[in-house]
Amino acid sequence: MDFRRWVLVGVGTCVALLPGNYYPSNMVDNQNWGAYSPYLPVAEYVAPPERCEITQLQRHGARDPTAGPAAKIAIAVSKLQNVSTYGDSSLDFIRNFTLDLGTNDLVPFGAEAYARYRELVSADNVPFVRASSSDRVVMSATNWTYGFSAASGLRFNPILSVIFDESANDTLRNSCDNIGSSDNQTDTWIAIYGQPIVQRLNSAIPGANLSSTDVYDLMALCAFESVATDSISDWCGLFDDEEWRDFEYEMDLDKYYSTGYGQPLGPVEGVGYINELIARLTSRPVNDTTQSNSTLDQSSVTFPLNRTIYADFSHDDQLIAIYSAMGLFKQTTPLDPTNPSSSGSNRTWITSQLVPFSARMVVEKMQCQYSSQDSEYIRVLVNDAVQPLNFCAGVTEDGICGLPAFVRSQSYSTSGGNGDWQRCFQ
Ligand SMILES: *[C@@H]1O[C@H](CO)[C@@H](O)[C@H](O)[C@H]1NC(C)=O
Ligand SMILES: *[C@@H]1O[C@H](CO)[C@@H](O)[C@H](O)[C@H]1NC(C)=O
Ligand SMILES: *[C@@H]1O[C@H](CO)[C@@H](O)[C@H](O)[C@H]1NC(C)=O
Ligand SMILES: *[C@@H]1O[C@H](CO)[C@@H](O)[C@H](O)[C@H]1NC(C)=O
Ligand SMILES: *[C@@H]1O[C@H](CO)[C@@H](O)[C@H](O)[C@H]1NC(C)=O
Ligand SMILES: *[C@@H]1O[C@H](CO)[C@@H](O)[C@H](O)[C@H]1NC(C)=O
Ligand SMILES: *[C@@H]1O[C@H](CO)[C@@H](O)[C@H](O)[C@H]1NC(C)=O
Ligand SMILES: *[C@@H]1O[C@H](CO)[C@@H](O)[C@H](O)[C@H]1NC(C)=O
Ligand SMILES: *[C@@H]1O[C@H](CO)[C@@H](O)[C@H](O)[C@H]1NC(C)=O
Ligand SMILES: CC(=O)N[C@H]1CO[C@H](CO)[C@@H](O)[C@@H]1O
């Protein structure tokens, strides 16, 4: 195979600037912290035969709890601090605990991208970068550009070119008015797994009167404090391995039923991004009738088509919608809110592997000579794991599929979501 040209397209959640961008060194695999997990590649990256173009989509990096969860965590902590004695001396740390989830060092994700894809970069072809407008997403994108620039010895200096206003429709943020919530499923499950933990803790800490949602908040506190301090928080020790698997399942349900396959209007929120991806991969203008901003997407300044690396920064719920619009991680049976093992060992919907902090989906385009004709192929990686793309006709065992077959497989998006986008506003 001749090396020709690459195009890379990536979307991601926040690149983490915070310690939670990478797995803290003293943490073991499979913390089961759902979307609050530090980034850990799911597989070791293996380069494809040749690379043409890259689109990278990434989630924001580790963050403090947003205001809502932070207030709930503070209430749960104060319930525990109000009791007069702890039955077990291992709980004494609670008395003097102060809630202080500061942020930390920049982790060089942009540097990793430069190291991996440097042959695609030149003075007139630096990565094209977009972000949704939340502070944590913008900071992730900016710090990615700094990391990229520093790794190149300041030769190539990408800038954040487009910041989407989250109060409007855009492809890096979900904005469907009629979308449902996952509360039914998560409330059902927390009432089941939370009860024994509530009883255990309330008997160890008489007077605390914790509820099952307090338990969830204290488990979330373990994750947040651990990623903020780059070491395992004392709170983590209050729960055993099975309880962590149950917590992870709550996160699995939450994402599946918020913007994933379990939410009728979830996947449609990924349609605009998939149509932009197809435009980049095929070098044709964006054809989308959903949430893309046509003013921006028709301009070569805000939507150039001749770049080799694109990097977009977004949120976990939006990454999930994009995975689901594309057909990634499709489950044979829906997740059962009363029973985590109902889908057996087939379940690949595990939130800590789908959207940990700094999660990223990368689409690599390559030009290979499998026959006498040149042909274009793609490969999709989520957190460095090559996806099987079994929805794409002719896909190889290595997850490489012809670009035309990939585009044909995306009919849900190319048809504009089969009316689901209109259902968002009716
Ligand atoms: C803890 O005690 C303080 C002072 O008695 C009280 O104001 C506060 O409401 C209590 N917090 C909880 C969560 O019960
Ligand atoms: C909590 O702080 C007080 C006052 O600073 C100190 O006397 C006490 O030993 C601390 N308790 C624990 C468990 O660290
Ligand atoms: C993109 O193509 C246009 C014209 O085809 C050219 O002027 C521009 O320099 C190219 N930009 C990059 C980054 O290659
Ligand atoms: C998003 O687009 C829909 C129609 O496609 C429109 O009804 C809705 O008001 C738009 N939302 C925002 C926030 O502009
Ligand atoms: C909540 O979930 C249960 C079990 O999954 C289902 O039977 C019920 O219809 C759901 N209720 C609502 C309001 O969606
Ligand atoms: C315990 O908390 C529940 C709410 O979760 C509340 O209704 C109840 O009054 C509380 N009991 C005591 C003894 O504080
Ligand atoms: C598209 O984006 C531009 C630039 O941010 C903005 O001015 C315009 O209002 C957006 N269009 C819609 C329909 O939201
Ligand atoms: C797991 O997948 C296999 C093969 O696709 C299927 O036969 C089996 O029924 C699945 N098991 C469950 C529990 O869904
Ligand atoms: C654009 O997409 C619509 C469906 O949403 C399709 O009918 C139309 O043919 C497409 N146009 C082009 C130029 O591909
Ligand atoms: C941790 C870190 O370096 N964060 C920086 C990320 O970039 C923003 C600017 O967009 C800085 O303000 C942060 O300090």
From TrEMBL:
InterPro entries assigned: His_Pase_clade-2, His_PPase_superfam, Histidine_acid_Pase_euk
GO CC annotations, alphabetized: extracellular region
Catalytic activity: 1D-myo-inositol 1,2-bisphosphate + H2O = 1D-myo-inositol 2-phosphate + phosphate; 1D-myo-inositol 1,2,6-trisphosphate + H2O = 1D-myo-inositol 1,2-bisphosphate + phosphate; 1D-myo-inositol 1,2,4,5,6-pentakisphosphate + H2O = 1D-myo-inositol 1,2,5,6-tetrakisphosphate + phosphate; 1D-myo-inositol hexakisphosphate + H2O = 1D-myo-inositol 1,2,4,5,6-pentakisphosphate + phosphate
One annotated GO molecular function: inositol hexakisphosphate 3-phosphatase activity
Keyword Glycoprotein appears in the UniProt entry: yes
Location(s), subcellular: Secreted
SUPFAM superfamilies for the chain: Phosphoglycerate mutase-like
Active site: 60, 316
Top-level taxonomic group: Eukaryota
CDD domains: HP_HAP_like (cd07061)
Cysteine-cysteine disulfides: 52-368, 222-236, 392-401
Keyword annotations from UniProtKB, A to Z: Disulfide bond, Glycoprotein, Hydrolase, Secreted
Complexes and interactors: Monomer.
PANTHER family: 3-PHYTASE B, MULTIPLE INOSITOL POLYPHOSPHATE PHOSPHATASE-RELATED
Name of the molecule in the record: Phytase A
Upper classification of the organism: Eukaryota, Fungi, Dikarya, Basidiomycota, Agaricomycotina
